[in-house]
């Protein structure tokens, strides 16, 4: 049995979005485990809640999202409950997120080499990092408050401009009268802005005081930390220096080399030197398969193809030495060959770096060769969950069957069967099995009662009433069973 350590454990995630039309129940009890060194694929049609799940793990939910329940354990901490500062640490460092569109994560006017070295330097400067860690929570609160105030003022200005526009364009108001009205409005605006400043000043000033105090504390801590690094270095080189004075010739050279190495290491422990940052950047570019890395180091994002840009984004994520990568449809915008290359890269990183990954896609076909485990998602729930072989060779949920039937078969060129109907409106999620209304296997109970998870093996679960012993026996569609038979034959296994 291989390593079964769980890296991220999500339990019963529930989440809603508040919108003008109502409350969108985007996640309705999502549970899964990410095992160390494995690739977990989350598969489902658009709108099933895949990206929301990723965003919830990363703590980057939009303002209208409300967590209704659940927990996400990572390194003994519930990510839904950790403070913002801790989250910040985890987000950039331990868990990396890669989106579908690499352009959105790259700065278009900065050479890519600089973007990679910057990421390395932020991570590499330990003293600065400590300083920031102490200071940022207070600084964030302070800046947020200022931003909120400014937004409120912006809104007032916007209202004023709207009203002025209306008055000026109202032919019923005489010119002189209009000017008077606008003057009155402008006066009111000034008063309102002053009122906002007066109202928010005490809070902002108090927060500013906290920032100032934290800045002193951070400086002190950073200084102490630096001093401890310096003294550790001095302790290390003192005996070498003594020896250096006592020996000669080749021995002397060897000790001098040791001293030089210690010095470089010390310098890099304080702050990644530009030369070292560049060396590491080129190394990570090579690792993600960017050819001529040292030349391309100086190019801009637009000089790279979509696939290469996605590699750069992955390289930037790797500078933080993450132990989990979340890839949200990273290949969807790419053509098939390039897609396959990115998948190979993810697979390679997983092996070489012992990374764990959550790979999100709407296309079950894409993940056949890379998934260790698969979670099939529909309407904010995981309807089937298991090892990749279990999902591909022994699927049980009609939705999984539908997804499998819609994978085009390369050999037989069998026609792609698209899934009939559309996903449900998540403001009013259907009762029972949400897929029932689109499934020809649906039974009366599917429209009434939510199916529990039926366990098929130690690792395989499916939420469908078809697995209830009282249900009539239903077989998967022929297209799916044929395909399974064929792929088993190809894999040299016998069926049955
Ligand atoms: N910011 C938002 N406001 C309102 N609804 C949202 C928001 N983001 C996502 N949703 C809704 O949540 C559901 C899940 O979305 P998402 O996770 O993006 O799906 P996908 O599986 O395609 O990644 C969808 O019904 C979507 O419309
Ligand atoms: Mg998505």
Characterise the protein shown here.
- By secondary structure, this protein is an alpha/beta fold.
- The protein has 2 domains: 6-109 and 300-482, Rossmann fold, CATH 3.40.50.300; 126-270.
- Helices cover 50% and strands 16% of the residues.
- The protein is built from 13 helices and 12 strands.
- The chain has helices at 50-58, 84-94, 112-124, 126-169, 175-246, 249-270, 274-287, 293-296, 306-318, 336-353, 388-393, 398-405, 478-490; strands spanning 6-19, 22-35, 39-43, 65-74, 77-78, 95-98, 324-328, 356-361, 373-378, 381-387, 454-455, 461-462.
- The strands form 2 sheets. It has an 8-stranded mixed β-sheet, with helices on both faces.
- β7 (324-328), α10 (336-353) and β8 form a beta-alpha-beta unit.
- α3 crosses α7 (274-287) and α7 (274-287) packs across α9 (306-318).
- It is globular.
- The protein starts with 5 loop residues before the first strand and ends in a 6-residue tail after the last helix.
- The mean pLDDT is 89.
- Adenosine-5'-diphosphate binds next to β1, β2 and α1.
- Adenosine-5'-diphosphate (ADP) binds at residues 17, 19, 24, 26, 44, 46-52, 62, 64, 426.
Tag the structure with descriptive keywords:
496 residues; alpha/beta; Rossmann fold; 2 domains; four-stranded antiparallel β-sheet; 13 helices; 16% strand; globular; binds adenosine-5'-diphosphate; binds magnesium ion
Helices and strands in order, then pairings?
Blueprint: E1 6-19, E2 22-35, E3 39-43, H1 50-58, E4 65-74, E5 77-78, H2 84-94, E6 95-98, H3 112-124, H4 126-169, H5 175-246, H6 249-270, H7 274-287, H8 293-296, H9 306-318, E7 324-328, H10 336-353, E8 356-361, E9 373-378, E10 381-387, H11 388-393, H12 398-405, E11 454-455, E12 461-462, H13 478-490
Parallel strand pairs: 3-8, 3-9, 6-7, 7-8
Antiparallel strand pairs: 1-2, 1-4, 4-5, 9-10, 10-12, 11-12
The structure holds adenosine-5'-diphosphate and magnesium ion.
């Amino acid at each position: 049995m291989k390593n079964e350590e769980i890296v991220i454990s999500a339990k019963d995630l529930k989440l809603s979005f508040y919108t003008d039309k109502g409350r969108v129940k985007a996640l309705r009890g999502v549970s899964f485990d990410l095992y160390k060194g494995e690739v977990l694929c989350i598969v489902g049609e658009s709108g099933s809640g895949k990206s929301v799940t990723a965003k919830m793990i990363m703590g980057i939910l939009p303002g209208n999202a409300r967590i209704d329940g659940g927990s996400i354990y990572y390194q003994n901490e519930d990510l839904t409950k950790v403070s913002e500062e801790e989250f910040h640490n985890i987000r950039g460092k331990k868990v990396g997120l890669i989106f579908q569109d690499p352009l959105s994560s790259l700065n278009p006017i900065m050479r890519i080499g600089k973007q990679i070295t910057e990421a390395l330097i932020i991570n590499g400067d330990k003293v600065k990092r400590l300083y920031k860690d102490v200071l940022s929570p207070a600084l964030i609160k302070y800046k947020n408050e200022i931003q909120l105030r400014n937004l409120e003022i912006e809104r007032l200005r916007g209202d004023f401009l709207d009203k002025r526009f209306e008055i000026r364009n109202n032919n019923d108001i005489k010119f002189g009268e209009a000017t008077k009205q606008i003057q009155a409005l402008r006066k009111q605006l000034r008063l309102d802005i002053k009122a906002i400043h007066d109202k928010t000043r005490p809070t902002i000033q108090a927060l500013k005081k906290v920032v100032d105090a934290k800045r002193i504390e951070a400086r002190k801590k950073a200084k102490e930390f630096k001093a401890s690094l310096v003294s550790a270095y001095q302790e290390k080189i003192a005996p070498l220096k003594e020896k250096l004075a006592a020996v000669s010739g080749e021995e002397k050279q060897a000790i001098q080399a040791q001293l030089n190495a210690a010095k470089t290491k010390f310098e890099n422990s304080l702050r990644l030197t530009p030369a070292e940052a560049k060396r590491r950047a080129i190394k990570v570019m090579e690792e993600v398969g960017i050819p001529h890395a040292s030349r391309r180091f100086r190019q801009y994002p637009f000089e790279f193809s979509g696939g290469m840009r996605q590699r750069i984004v992955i390289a930037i994520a790797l500078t933080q030495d993450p132990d989990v990568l979340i890839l949200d449809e990273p290949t969807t915008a790419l053509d098939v060959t390039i897609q396959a290359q990115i998948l190979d890269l993810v697979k390679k990183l997983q092996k070489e770096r012992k990374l764990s990954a959550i790979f999100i896609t709407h296309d079950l076909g894409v993940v056949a060769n890379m998934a260790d485990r698969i979670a099939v998602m529909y309407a904010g729930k995981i309807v089937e969950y298991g090892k990749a072989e279990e999902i591909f060779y022994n699927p049980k949920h009609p939705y999984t069957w539908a997804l499998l039937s819609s994978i085009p078969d390369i050999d037989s060129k069998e026609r792609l069967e698209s899934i009939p109907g559309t996903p449900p409106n998540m403001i009013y999620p259907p009762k029972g099995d949400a897929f029932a209304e689109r499934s020809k296997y649906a039974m009366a109970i599917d429209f009434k009662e939510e199916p529990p998870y039926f366990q098929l093996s130690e690792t395989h679960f499916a939420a469908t009433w078809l697995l209830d012993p009282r249900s009539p026996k239903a077989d998967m569609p022929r297209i799916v069973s044929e395909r399974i038979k064929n792929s088993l034959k190809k894999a040299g296994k016998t069926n049955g």
